[in-house]
Amino acid sequence: MSSELCVFEWRYGSDEMRKIFSRENFVSKFIQVEKSLLKGLVEAGFVERECVDEINKCLENIDLYKLSEDVYRLEREIGHEIAALTYLLGERCGRCGGYIHLGATSNDIIDTAWTIMIRDALEIIKRRFRQVFDKMIFYIERYKDLVMIGRTHGQHALPITLGFKFANYLYELSRSYERICDLEKRVLRGKIAGAVGTMAGWRGRGLVIEKVVMKDLGLEPHMISTQISPRDGFAELVSTFSILASQIDRFALEIRELSRTEINEIYESVERVGSSTMPHKRNPVTAERLSGLARFIRSLATAFYENIVLMHERDLSNSSFERISIPHIFMTIDQMFIDMIYLLDHLMINENAIRRNLEISRGAVMSENIMIRLVERGVPRHVAHKKLVELIREAEREGVDFKEILLRDDLVRKHLDSEEIDHLLKPESYLGSYRELIDRTIRYAKDILSRC
Q1: CA-to-CA distance for 188 and 224, rounded, in angstroms?
Q2: Buried b or exposed e, range 350-368, using 16+ CB within 10 angstroms
Q3: Residue 87 and residue 100 in contact, taking contact as beta carbons nearer than 8 Å
Q4: pTM to 2 decimals?
Q5: Cβ atoms 445, 133 nearer than 8 A
Q6: Do domains 15-97 and 106-191+228-357 have the same CATH topology?
Q7: Which of 268-272, 276-280, 315-319, 350-354 has the weakest average pLDDT?
Q8: Does CATH place domain 106-191+228-357 in 1.10.510.10?
Q9: Of 74, 111, 248, 424, which one has the fewest beta carbons inside 10 Å?
Q10: Domain 15-97 carries which CATH code?
Q11: Contact by Cβ (8 Å): 124, 327
Q12: pLDDT in tens, 169-195
């Protein structure tokens, strides 16, 4: 292992997130759980009360960096990190050190330490989430009424507004924030239950010990466990992160698509070299990196499902994978939020291109509005639809405005005059309840934030 990280050297993620999953912090959390366990042993009558102060004094004088070096040096000899830690503390903390880890199993310490680190990591993610929400809401409110073309199947569909587009992404992200808040009650649980989960080593006083430990650590316990915490919690966490990463990826893909030269509606404005050979390039590299990182996170979900399937009261097949993947998945999602915040801070909105693209179809995108008005005037819907398909194809063949073709047609002129057609062909006339939907979405997101 590196002297600083419990994972491979890693390009992505903040220093703040790296510190949570550093080797020293891992050992620090092991010690934190062992200290809480000692308090439980005192309350259950296994250890003299003064041992709590003695162990605290002992640990105050221990260099955590040096201790972590010693733990993993000894682990290489004996093949067990928690045993290595308890041996070293037992030797260095006098008589009371002999009670450390009494009745516990390694994963009482490891799984509860994971929970504490994941809790800390989720706080960073939630804080970044809130930054993204603030920036999204800024775009929604600023561009609430900026009309643009909506696209389905990559084709021009109906008019929307840019604020409406951003509101859809806000809504999806708020649902993932809500998922994270909801899963915390299942995932952020400690496990203090002994070798196979029965608490046998504590002579019928295990529930007393568990209560003290969980209160001291600010956690709720798993109701029951084997030697380890149930792994469905990690699987749920990574499933939620996979959904979240895919939502961010969807936003990133939107930016990548809209920044195409021939579309050019939204692009990333950054003073960087776009190509080593083509000076004119302006590449959406931040958005592309978001898409790449999302693929990594999604790729891990299946393996976390596999970790649920362990033999009997446990085997070790989950452990090695988790030590690599849990820190990496948090650093990856952390980097995705860092990039998302950066991207939102550097978006350029090309209103001229938005207007130009809205007019490319020369009015044909407003055909549904015409059809509905014809139905309101008594034309059967299927008749109106068939007629408008024919007229649109005619306009395309002749290369003329849709309005010109409409005014030529007897059925259309029978029910609509030129002035009304002008109104129906205006994109602003066909935006539905977009403002109410935007406002409802913002309220929804803010309500979720206020609850978690």
Answers
A1: 14
A2: beebbeebbeebbbbbbbe
A3: no
A4: 0.93
A5: yes
A6: no
A7: 276-280
A8: no
A9: 74
A10: 1.10.275.10
A11: no
A12: 999 999 999 999 999 999 999 999 999
What is the token pair recorded at 360? 């490319």
| Tokens at 356, concatenated | 């130009």
CA-angle at 104, arms to 121 and 197, nearest 5°: 85
Radius of gyration (C-alpha) of the chain in whole angstroms: 30
Give the residue from 428, 427, 411 showing the smallest Cα distance to 377. 411
DSSP, collapsed to helix, strand or coil, labels residue 152 as: strand
* CB 199, CB 223: distance < 8 Å: no
- Mark out the alpha helices in 361-433 (DSSP H runs): 367-376, 381-398, 402-408, 410-415, 418-424
Structure token pair of residue 322: 């988790």
Specify whether the CB–CB gap between 337 and 132 falls below 8 A.
Answer: yes
Q: What is the mean pLDDT of the chain?
A: 95
Annotated catalytic sites, by residue? 153, 275
Token pair recorded at residue 10: 């890693």
* Domain residue spans of the chain: 15-97, 106-191+228-357, 364-424
